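Weekly structure sync, notes
Attendees: PL (lead), two postdocs, one rotation student
Agenda item 3: pending single-chain targets
PL asked that the sequence for the first pending target be pasted directly into the notes so everyone works from the same version. It is reproduced below exactly as submitted, 427 residues in total.
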Amino acid sequence: MRCLRKKMTLLYTASYRYRRALQTMAAGLFLIYITLVLYQSVCGGAYSGCSDGSDGLAVDTTPPVTGGSVQQDWQSAGGSGMLNGGAASVVISKRDSVMATGGVGAGAVVHRIGASGNSLAQPGATPAGSGQRTLAYDVHRVPAVTGTPKPPTTELDDLLISVKTTKSYHDTRLEMITKTWYQLAKEQTWFFTDTDDAHYQKLTNNHMVNTNCSQGHFRKALCCKMGKEFEFFLDSAKKWWCHFDDDNYVNVPRLVRMLDDYSPTQDWYLGKPSISSPLEIFLDSTKSSTEVNKKVTFWFATGGAGFCISRALALKMMPIAASGKFVAIGDNIRFPDDVTMGFLIEHILKVPLTVIDAFHSHLEPMEFIRPETFHDQVSFSYARMRNEWNVVKVDGFDLKTDPQRIYSLHCYLYPFFSICPKSIRRR
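Predicted structure, written out during the meeting:
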């Protein structure tokens, strides 16, 4: 009996020690888990960090800014000389998620574009006397809680912006562009025209391309220039091609932020149609065709509002659109350049148009775009129809000086340019 009791005591002691060991291990694992969760929540964000920046992540030392949806903080030399060949520098912010419409708080991320090269610089305090202008945007920054790397972001220098123009508009439309939004993207913007122009060649630092296409606004000339723009992009190392007409105003910072939502390594055709339903056309029968007058339906982004194409999609287009083949497609369907582009992408390559409402052409009433939303738009336009101007309604210059309202719109968005009246700068 005593032996049995002794054996039971030993068995109970071993079981008790085993349970205690398991409880200790569980408590230890729980403490490790809590520690990891706390560390991730504090140090896991892409813009936050527990280091001094030596790990390669930029440390943002920019002080908080408060105010409207877009704030300008100019140094004393920032606005002068912007339109006279001076060293212009502007800041374009890239967003992580959704751009806020309210004021800029402590979560603002500021990226600067220097006067030389217009490349995005690391965020930080603006050196005294640097003459830089800061456009600060509020960014919702959600700390990452996983090890998944953030996709590559789009920067201004990833873009090739092409503007289609013609000789008769050099001294009118081109002059307005070079004094306004072109100043925000000098190195990225190229003008495709149909003649040599020494004055604007010098003014744009040799960014005028004589396509040797015919002058005029007819299908052959339009498709010829569009084909040259496309081939010019293929020869570049840029990730995005954005086409605009010479009657567009391009809000460059908003364009960069919009493209940051999409990957250039995927097929993207971004723009806005000017019709309420897909276009239907009938293809002529050919010897190799089994169908007579085959009906084709597709969407296209109107060129008058602008559109953007990713590098991945452009490479898919190259075998069927490069080396003059784009003009041949336009001749075959007998439609202008923007319709030909939609036919090629939507019908032939089966890549759908992604509609971006922030693009605007003169085919829609500009007066319905509210001034409080100007900063959210990518492009604007203007036109004179039935002796009336279809333009945005914005205060600024008088109607005689600025009937197209392009200068006034630019000064509304960026009031510290040297062309803007002092009354606007003080707003």
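Discussion points:
- The longest strand covers residues 159-164.
- The CA atoms of residues 2 and 8 lie 10 Å apart.
Action: rotation student to compare against the earlier draft before next sync.
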